[in-house]
Specification:
alpha/beta, Transcription Regulator spoIIAA, 2 domains, 7-stranded mixed β-sheet, 12 strands, membrane, glycoprotein
Length: about 700
C-alpha cells in the first residue's frame, strides 16, 4: 500500500524575505523597547533580582573569582607579550560588559590562556617585523629616527608612520597597539557573525578538535614558560615549529640557568600542585577553593622584595605596574589591516569556547541562553575594551567551574570580581613590582593541568572511537608543532575529511531474517539468521551521492556475487558466437556442445535470486548521481530478469526518486517498486511468478 502524502502549500521565498524585511524595518516604541532589552539582557533580569536569595552566593563567588583573577591576569600577560597592567584592564572591562550583555548566569568571561597565547604570537611576530628585540628584559625603546638600534642598550625606537601612527612609539606602545587592533577586528568579526547569524560555524569545531587544539596550545604555552622557570634569557621563537625551536634554544643555553629562579620555581610548583590536588580531593568539604595562587604571589613578592633577589641573583621580576587608567585611544586602522587575517581564528575560538561553556552551564542549571546574543556579548567584550588598552577575551573553563561551585547565581558576581580587579588597578598594582616572573610561569603551567590531563584519556577515547582519537591527535600535533592557528584549521579540515571518508566507504551488508519474525539484520554480525530464498537484501549505511557511487556498486556486486554488466556482456558474447556457428550450418556451439546444451553455457554461474531488496533506511539523501545509480541498477538487473525493490525510504529520498523519473512518468509502477518495510518487499518478491 502507499500512504497518502500531505499537500504542502508552496510559499514564495521572495514573499517571505520581503515580509521579514518589512517587519524588521518597521518601527514602534514596543519594538524599540524589546530591541534594547534583548541587546542588554541585564534590563530584563536585574529588576527581578532576588537580593536575599542571590546576593550572598554572588558576592562570595565574585570575591573568589576576583582573588583568582588578579594573579592569573598578571601571569597571562607573559603569554600575550604585554605588560601586566593591560591584563588587569582586560579582566575589568570584560566582566562589566558581559554583565550587561551576556545571557549566561554562570560563565566567567575574561582573560584566557589560549586566547592570550594567540594574541601573543601575533604581537611577537609584528614586533619582530618592526625591528624590535623580543627579549623580555630589554629596556624600553627610546630615541629618534625611523628605526635605530643600539647594540649596547639593546633598545629600538620605531617611527610608526608606516603603520598609520605619526608619533614615535616604543616596544610596549607598539605591542599594545597591535593587540588592541587585533582585538577590535576580532570583535567586529564576532558582531558581524551575530548580525548574519553565522553561529553555525561553531558546529564545525567538534569536541575532538577543540580538545586537541586546547592540548596542543597547552604544550605551546608550557614550552613558552620554561625559560622563565629556569631563568634563561632567550628571545621568544617565532614562526612555524616554535615548540621545537624553543626547546632547542633552551638546551643550547641551559648553562645560563638562574639557580635562584630554578629553586623558586620548584618550590612554587610543589606548593601549587599539592594545594590543587588537596583541593580536588576535599572539594566537597570546602565551601570555596583555596586562594593558593594569591598566597603564593604574596609570599613570593615579599621574599623577592626583602631578599633583593633581582639585585643579588639577577632574577627577572615583573617591574613597575602603574595605577589608574590610561586615556582611551582608538585602535589604528592600518594596524588592523596587518592583523585582519589573524583576527578570524581568534574570533571563532573565543566565540566557540564562550558559547560551549554557556550552554554547559545553562543545561546544568535548567535555563536557556541565546547563542546569537552571546556572540554579540563576546564581540563587544572585545570591541569596547580595545579602546581602553585591553586585548581579546573569552569564557574560561576553570574560572567558570569555580564560579558555579562557590554559589554563583547571576552575573552580579562578575561585577564583584571587576571591583576586586579595580581595587588592584587603583591602589595595589605597584606592590607587585618585585614579583618574580618564574612565579607567574609556575601559575600558568599549573593551570594547564586540566588540558594536559587529556593525555590520560587517550586509551578511553581510542576505545570509544578510533576516528575521533585520530582527529584529536592530528589537531593536537599540528597545534603544537606548527602553530595554533594552523592547528585549528588542520583539525577542522581533517575532521571533515574523516566524515567524507566515512560516507565514501560506509558499512554494507546482506541481511537475513530473524527467525519467526518480520525483522531483518546483518547476516555477518548475528547468528541464527535465515536467508530468504530467491531474495537478496542489501543495506547501505550512508547517503548515496557522487563520492560513494562506485563503492555502492562494488559492494552490491561483491555481496550478491553478481555483476549484471559483466553477466550481460558475457551473454551477448555467447549469443554472438552462437549466431556465427548457426550461420555456418554448424549445429554445435563454439564449445563443441549441441544447441540444446547452449543454455547451460550461456549461464554457467547459476543466479540464486530473482529479487533484490535495497534497504534504504540508512540512506538519508540522494543527489543526482545517487538517483541515476539506482536507475542504473534497476535497468541492469531487469535485463537479467531480477526485480529491484526499495524499502524504508524516507520522504526526501522518495521525492528525489520521483523528480529523477525512477518510478516512470506517471508513477504507475510505484506500488511495485517501493515498500515501507523490508518484510513487505520480501513478501511481494515471494509472490512474484
Amino acid at each position: 500500500f502507499l500512504m497518502k502524502r500531505k499537500t504542502h502549500v508552496k510559499i514564495s521565498r521572495k514573499e517571505v524575505m520581503l515580509a521579514k524585511l518589512k517587519k524588521s524595518c518597521s518601527f514602534t516604541p514596543k519594538k524599540l523597547k524589546n530591541f534594547v532589552m534583548d541587546f542588554l539582557p541585564v534590563l530584563r533580569w536585574l529588576p527581578k533580582y532576588k537580593c536575599k536569595e542571590y546576593i550572598w552566593g554572588d558576592v562570595m563567588s565574585g570575591l573568589v573569582i576576583g582573588i583568582i583573577l588578579v594573579p592569573q591576569a598578571i601571569a597571562y600577560s607573559l603569554l600575550a607579550g604585554l605588560k601586566p597592567i593591560y591584563s588587569l584592564y582586560t579582566s575589568f572591562f570584560a566582566n562589566i560588559i558581559y554583565f550587561l550583555m551576556g545571557t549566561s548566569r554562570h560563565v566567567s568571561v575574561g582573560i584566557f590562556s589560549l586566547i592570550s597565547l594567540m594574541v601573543g604570537q601575533v604581537v611577537d611576530r609584528e614586533l619582530l617585523l618592526a625591528g624590535f628585540d623580543l627579549n623580555d628584559d630589554a629596556p624600553p625603546a627610546l630615541g629618534h629616527g625611523s628605526l635605530q638600534n643600539d647594540s649596547q642598550s639593546n633598545t629600538t625606537a620605531f617611527n610608526l608612520t608606516i603603520a598609520g601612527m605619526d608619533a614615535e612609539c616604543g616596544k610596549e606602545c607598539y605591542a599594545i597597539g597591535i593587540a588592541t587592533a587585533l582585538t577590535f577586528v576580532a570583535g567586529v568579526y564576532q558582531v558581524l557573525m551575530g548580525i548574519f547569524r553565522l553561529g553555525f560555524v561553531s558546529m564545525y569545531l567538534s569536541e575532538s578538535v577543540l580538545d586537541g587544539f586546547a592540548t596542543g596550545a597547552s604544550l605551546t604555552i608550557l614550552t613558552a614558560q620554561v625559560k622563565y622557570l629556569i631563568g634563561i634569557k632567550i628571545p621568544r621563537s617565532q614562526g612555524y615549529g616554535m615548540l621545537v625551536t624553543t626547546w632547542i634554544n633552551l638546551f643550547r643555553n641551559i648553562s645560563q640557568a638562574n639557580l635562584c629562579d630554578v629553586i623558586t620555581s620548584a618550590i612554587c610548583i610543589v606548593v601549587l600542585v599539592t594545594a590543587k590536588e588537596l583541593g580536588d580531593q576535599y572539594k566537597h568539604k570546602l565551601k570555596f577553593p583555596l586562594p593558593t595562587e594569591l598566597v603564593v604571589i604574596v609570599v613570593a613578592t615579599l621574599v623577592s622584595h626583602y631578599g633583593k633577589l633581582n639585585e643579588v641573583y639577577a632574577s627577572s621580576v615583573s617591574g613597575a605596574i602603574p595605577t589608574g587608567f590610561t586615556p582611551p585611544k582608538v585602535p589604528h586602522f592600518n594596524l588592523m589591516l596587518r592583523v585582519a587575517v589573524d583576527a578570524l581564528p581568534l574570533a571563532i575560538v573565543s566565540f566557540v569556547f564562550t558559547v560551549s561553556l554557556s550552554e554547559m552551564c545553562a543545561k546544568k542549571y535548567a535555563y536557556t541562553i541565546r547563542a546569537n546574543q552571546e556572540m554579540f556579548a563576546v564581540g563587544f567584550c572585545n570591541i569596547i575594551p580595545s579602546f581602553f588598552h585591553s586585548f581579546a577575551t573569552s569564557a574560561a573553563l576553570a574560572k567558570t567551574l569555580v564560579k558555579t561551585s562557590t554559589g554563583c547565581q547571576t552575573q552580579v558576581s562578575g561585577v564583584v570580581s571587576a571591583m576586586v580587579v579595580l581595587l588592584v588597578l587603583l591602589f595595589l598594582a605597584p606592590l607587585f613590582y618585585s614579583l618574580q616572573k618564574c612565579v607567574l610561569a609556575c601559575i600558568i603551567i599549573v593551570s594547564l593541568r586540566g588540558a594536559l590531563r587529556k593525555f590520560r584519556d587517550v586509551p578511553a577515547r581510542y576505545h570509544m572511537n578510533k576516528v575521533d582519537t585520530l582527529v584529536w591527535f592530528v589537531t593536537m600535533s599540528a597545534s603544537a608543532l606548527i602553530s595554533t592557528e594552523i592547528g585549528l584549521l588542520v583539525g577542522i579540515v581533517f575532521s571533515m575529511l574523516c566524515i567524507i571518508a566515512w560516507t565514501q566507504r560506509p558499512r554494507t551488508a546482506l541481511l537475513g531474517q530473524i527467525q519467526d519474525t518480520s525483522f531483518y539484520e546483518d547476516d555477518g554480525e548475528y547468528e541464527n539468521l535465515s536467508s530468504v530464498p530467491k531474495v537478496k537484501i542489501f543495506r547501505f549505511e550512508a547517503p548515496l551521492y557522487y563520492a560513494n557511487r562506485n563503492y555502492f556498486l562494488k559492494s552490491l556486486y561483491r555481496l550478491t556475487n553478481l555483476d549484471p554488466n559483466l553477466e550481460a556482456a558475457r551473454r551477448k558474447k555467447y549469443e554472438k558466437k552462437e549466431k556465427q556457428h548457426l550461420k555456418k550450418g554448424d549445429h554445435t556451439t563454439a564449445n563443441g556442445l549441441g544447441i540444446g546444451e547452449t543454455t547451460l553455457q550461456l549461464v554457467p554461474k547459476k543466479i540464486d535470486f530473482q529479487a533484490l531488496v535495497v534497504d534504504c533506511s540508512s540512506i538519508s539523501f540522494l543527489d543526482t548521481t545517487g538517483v541515476n545509480t539506482l536507475k542504473e541498477i534497476l535497468k541492469d538487473y531487469k535485463d537479467l530478469n531480477i526485480s529491484v525493490l526499495l524499502a524504508c525510504c524516507n520522504p526526501s529520498v522518495i521525492d528525489s526518486l520521483k523528480r529523477g523519473g525512477y518510478f516512470g512518468k506517471d508513477f504507475g509502477n510505484m506500488q511495485e517498486m517501493l515498500f515501507y518495510s523490508i518484510h513487505n518487499a520480501v513478501q511481494f518478491a515471494k509472490d512474484q511468478k
